[in-house]
Write a structure and sequence with these properties.
The protein has 64 residues and is an all-alpha fold. The protein has four helices and no strands.
């Protein structure tokens, strides 16, 4: 679901992962038609990093 949000409304994806400042910057970038594609790519990348970080913290938490 977050991936669809990241593609259609990139700025909203940042708010769902707890990065409101990046969401505001992404919204400013997304306002321009040319900036929408880089904003979508940035949101998908940030979402991937968020998922990776979450999996790593879960794996390290289970070891202890």
């Amino acid at each position: 679901m977050r991936l669809i949000i990241a593609i259609l409304l990139p700025f909203l994806a940042f708010f769902t992962i707890g990065r409101p400042i990046a969401g505001i910057i992404c919204l400013i970038l997304q306002v321009t038609l040319i900036g929408w594609l880089p904003a979508a790519i940035w949101a998908v990348y940030a979402l991937g990093q968020y998922n990776t970080d979450r999996k790593i913290s879960e794996a390290l938490g289970n070891r202890r």
